[in-house]
Please model this.
Amino acid sequence: MTTAESATPVASDKPTDIRVLLKDLQARFDVFRNYSPLAIGIDKQLFAALPELSKKSVRLAMRSHTMATRYLREMEKATHRLNLDGSQAGEVTDENRLHATELLKERFKKQAEQRKATEAAAKAEALKQQKLQQLTEKFGRR
Model:
């Protein structure tokens, strides 16, 4: 990430900067590209490898990455966490796997609820249009 990118003060630019940072991390490190469970404290490894990164950018990028559905799915079935170089860095506990599963269940439940609400709104709109059409036909003949 260049100095200009990390110094951008506009809040609306931040998500783009984070996406750019994540794409860069995915290009550089297999553990990011594969959404592998990351070692606890991997941010220190990132700062050692890429000292130009800001703490805030790394924190936001890590949050985005570790909350991604693909990462959570990997956490559900993983047994080990990995360092930047791909070496094992500890175990993924049952508690970690359970937490990932719960987050995914909540996410999918919210998506299903949103889908149902959208479908209900579409049905209500179709019914409204149908009734308007019926009224137009009924009173438009005279």
